[in-house]
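The protein record filed here.
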Amino acid sequence: MTLSVRFHATGGPDVLTVEDLPLADPGPGEVRVRHTAIGVNYIDTYHRSGLYPVPLPGCPGMEAAGVVEAVGPDVTRVAVGQRVAYGTGPTGAYAAARIVPEAILLPLPEGIADEQAAAMMLRGMTVQYLIRRTFPVAPGMTVLLHAAAGGLGLIACQWLRHLGVTIIGTVGSEKKREIALAHGCTHVVIPSQEDLVARVRDLTDGKGVPVVYDGVGAALFEASLDCLRPRGMMVTFGNASGPVPPFPPTLLTQKGSLFLTRPSLNHYTAERDELEATAADLFEVVQKGVVSITIGQRFPLAEAAAAHRALESRATVGSTILLP
């Protein structure tokens, strides 16, 4: 039996229940991992709420770190006793142990602690593809990054600074402004207190930015379009404030022949060589000290509902993890 967090109907955090469930032996190409730390991400709340439908009953969670407890036939990449992590799903990480496909597992190098890994795999690999492949940044660029004091945002701030990029970050409070600045943000805007578009235009001599990295969604979407220079790219990868409502494509023309993309980590790591290269890039910047991983909140696994409440109320800073 293993402790697991599940939901039998979609809704708010209260639909999460704690259950003891049997755990089977791994089959061909499968691995049983005993979790030591589990990451909490906004996508977990989308699965729980039904915004991103999953089969019911469901178990949230896309990333975790742990130790290989057993392997099935044909497993060649990992061995019993090895430290591993994953960040691309499938869902089901909110459990003390689980069976996972070998294909998603990445051996953890020395110098990367289990809690660090659980706090960075999904977020850090997302940052990697956003800034290195979706819209590859270059030294001297100025970019707009929303939710700069969140778990993903703090990783992005440090990595972008390392690459010589000027970062205009948005946050929700004065406390978060200081945290974002301390992690590499060049300028920080609080949209609830300032005119975001005017501030960005002022900081870019009226030109606007070439790219917006947006994990917030509805609340800042239209203002973000107005922050872009002609032929700029809007990269919307999250819905923390709700999904972006439908709009006519001609709006992109009217605002400067803009580009819009809605990328997903799974599409950037679909092939094993892509997954390994993405993780290797992340491991390198963490091991070198370019990027430090901020864990702002730790909750027992059984208190996953409290973790979701904290995340959705914007009360968190940095990454949130669950401890089995």
Summary: The CA atoms of residues 23 and 315 lie 34 Å apart. The chain has two domains: 2-120+293-323, 139-262. The mean pLDDT is 96. DSSP finds ten helices and 15 strands in the chain.
